Predict the structure.
Amino acid sequence: MIITLTPNPSIDRTLVVTRLVRGHVHRATAEHEEPSGKGVNVSRALTRNGVDSTAVLPLGGDEGLKLARLLDEEGVRYRPVRIAGPVRVNVSLTEPDGLATKVNSLGPLLSAAEVVALTGALAELVAAGDWVVASGSLPRGVEDGYYAGLAEVVHAAGARFALDSSGSALRGGLAGRPDVIKPNIEELEEAVGQRVTTVGDVVSSATALLGRGAGSVLVSLGSDGALLVTADGAWHAQAGAVEPKSTIGAGDALLAGFISAGGHGPQALAEAVAWGTASVGEEGSRVPVITDRHRRAVVLSDEPGRNSPLSERAARQPA
Ligand SMILES: Nc1ncnc2c1ncn2[C@@H]1O[C@H](COP(=O)(O)OP(=O)(O)OP(=O)(O)O)[C@@H](O)[C@H]1O
Ligand SMILES: O=P(O)(O)OC[C@@]1(O)O[C@H](CO)[C@@H](O)[C@@H]1O
């Protein structure tokens, strides 16, 4: 089974606006809400595509009740850990071209007992052969080394551990020797302290993270697809740039696809990119149904063109 753990889940509220102007009052032309947080999105994508998954998450307050109801509506299986503080609400302001401006709330402060209960809930569920995907920011009250400790619990049970986080939570998690990590370009740069502008830079930065404990590194590159870097080599997969409706949660869909296909090797990378590409065709944090059309669009290469510039970086260069 694939278990996800999201220490800081959210309700994602999307407000569609015609054009965002700083300092102005905006009237939403449409709005919707989804149950979210990175690991929750992974479980939702797996469930929507018929892959067995359980989401472990802290739930508190009226927002926690609402999140549970939204998960029930999507048929997502979850194991709630009751906490005193309310689940956060993250807001996205989305413009017609798909560009989203996002404000993520801090989330609740977890007590020491609540943190122990969260880890305990996972420890009870995990069994040999499972994958555990731990994702997202750590709420207040949870130490930077939390994901490393979680990795130890997972490995002791004979299961494998995937980590998708950022900043000090990601850096701290490397000590637990996660089997796979899934940074995007900014998270990769932040983890190695170096700017990344070409495919070659991605490979060398990801290789540095292998040296710091990661078993493999799946780097999401936005419209350039994704790179998988392991001790055995590097592979690139891409399905061609599309006009995105929303890229929120695309990285979560990518990771869901990768783990659903076994969590290692080039074929899992190709499946991951099919899921990531399908995701950008959905609004807000909605999760996609993956079809053979998405799979056929993926081009896999075992010789990534190292001098190729990253499109998202090139787009930001001064003219
Ligand atoms: N414009 C695009 N065209 C085609 N595919 C895209 C585009 N943007 C993203 N993708 C697909 O989605 C995957 C994940 O995207 P991205 O790199 O933006 O993830 P992310 O920053 O981790 O996202 P998030 O944190 O919001 O989940 C990419 O690896 C790619 O397969
Ligand atoms: O604040 P975190 O935990 O880093 O990220 C949370 C979040 O931005 O990630 C998901 C997209 O990946 C969203 O659904 C959610 O709002």
Q: What stands out?
A: The chain has two domains: 1-179, 181-319.
